[in-house]
Amino acid sequence: MRKKFKKADGIIMVLAVFLLAFTFFIKGERVKVKDKWYKEKIQAASLMNECMKEIKEEKLRRNIKIDKKYDINSTGLIGVEMSKITTTSGALEAKRTSTNPNFAAVIVHMMKKAGLKEGDEIGVNFSSSFPALNIAVLSACEVLKVNPIVISSIGASTWGANIPEFNYMDMEELLYRKKILSNKSTAISIGGAEDIGKDMEPKVVEEILKRARNYGRIIIHQEDLQQNIKERYSIYTGDNRNIKAFINVGGNIVSLGETEDSADIPPGLIRTDKYKVNSKSGLIQMFLQKDIPVIHILNIKKLASDYGVGIDPMPLPKVGQGEIYYAYEYPFGIISLVLGITIITIIIYGSKVRSKYD
After folding, report:
1. Tell me, what's the pLDDT at 127?
2. Do 221 and 151 contact (CB within 8 A), yes or no?
3. pTM for the complete prediction?
4. What does residue 306 show for φ and ψ, rounded to 5 degrees?
5. What's the CA gap between 39 and 36, in Å, rounded?
6. Nearest-CA neighbor of 78 among 105, 51, 56?
7. Tens digit of pLDDT for each residue in 188-217?
8. What is the mean pLDDT of residues 82-99?
9. What is the pLDDT of residue 78?
10. Residue 219, beta-bridge partner list
11. What average pLDDT score do residues 215-226 get?
12. Least enclosed by CB within 10 Å: which of 87, 122, 130, 353?
């Protein structure tokens, strides 16, 4: 026999309907306000925008064509489909998405969430597949006064910084010499197959390495992958450095390693010790095992969606446009009152409701 419907049953049902309606009410009452790191985000995005303009002007000075069919916003940060230093296939939409200067604000947000403070030292690994995002990281470091130890690889996927005569290293050196940025790569590798350019023409490799030496870069050229990774790690941690975070841009093998779980490493800020270090691990796993937060910049369209900066926009948004600059404030007084009434109602009537059948 079914138990008789009680007054308490009705009260709990009314409470459930009320809470559902209240949820929609609160969403409408929230207020959009500037994020607590709004100033730093604007500064970083503005600096990235300045860097992009300088790179574009330099490309034009060098008579390097900016093909608006592919670089639809004429940024100068989109390369070509194939070249002598192209390594793998990359998505054009992701490359264009990365040229939004507001991505520097995303990097600031992640760095702040990682707990970084002025004067902190961080390890940074760049591929050349996303030159705009490399610049976003350096811009964020500049604004937050964080000291990056940067290592870059020159090979790039399609539409990245894959123009041999003006690759990412050349872009970085340009910005450094013009004193727009105060940091540049300490060391470089050629990238490509086994990170030593085995799939590239020897003459092209030697020309790039010669420029790197003239720029004062340390050259990493280890045929053994694990020795390569260990050399990089020793550069990051040398001189008793206290590395506070590790930032990786792109998907090169030295950062991800060759472990089975490397494909499962999520983009964004990572704090976990679930990735165990073994003979096939990359830099990301090594830093995570030391309880050092990692910011992994890959799967660009997902990051753009998650942080509200737009996917493959045309035209490019202006500095300061995007959800990354804002937060929502809620009427916590009303929420607390409703929560209190709900708890009291459940305490009084919860044990009295009809809960089973005979």
Report:
1. 95
2. no
3. 0.86
4. -60, -35
5. 8
6. 56
7. 999 988 888 888 999 999 999 999 999 999
8. 96
9. 98
10. 188
11. 94
12. 353
Using alpha carbons, select from 95, 120, 101 the residue that is nearest to residue 312. Answer: 95
> Mean per-residue pLDDT for 131-147?
98
For 147-162, letters b (16+ CB in 10 Å) and e give ebbbbbbbbbbbbbbb
Tokens of residue 312, six digits: 């493959």
Return the biggest CA–CA distance within the chain: 90
CA distance 268 to 139: 18
For the purposes of burial, counting CB atoms within 10 Å of the CB of 133, is it exposed (0-12), middle (13-18) or buried (19 or more)? Answer: buried
* Structure token pair of residue 105: 């604000």
Tokens coding 90: 């990359």
Count other Cβ atoms within 10 Å, centred on residue 329: 10
DSSP 279-322: TTB-HHHHHHHTT--EEEE--HHHHHHHHTS-SS-SSPPPTT-S
Give the integer Cα–Cα distance in Å for 19 and 21. Answer: 5
Tokens in use for 92?
């054009």
Tell me the pLDDT of the chain averaged across its residues: 90
**Is 102 in contact with 45 (CB distance < 8 Å)?**
yes
Give residue 245's identity as a one-letter amino acid code.
A
Q: How far apart are CA 292 and CA 288, in angstroms?
A: 5
| Sequence-ordered list of residues with C-beta below 8 angstroms from that of 100, at least 6 positions apart, any chain | 304, 309, 310, 313, 316, 317, 322
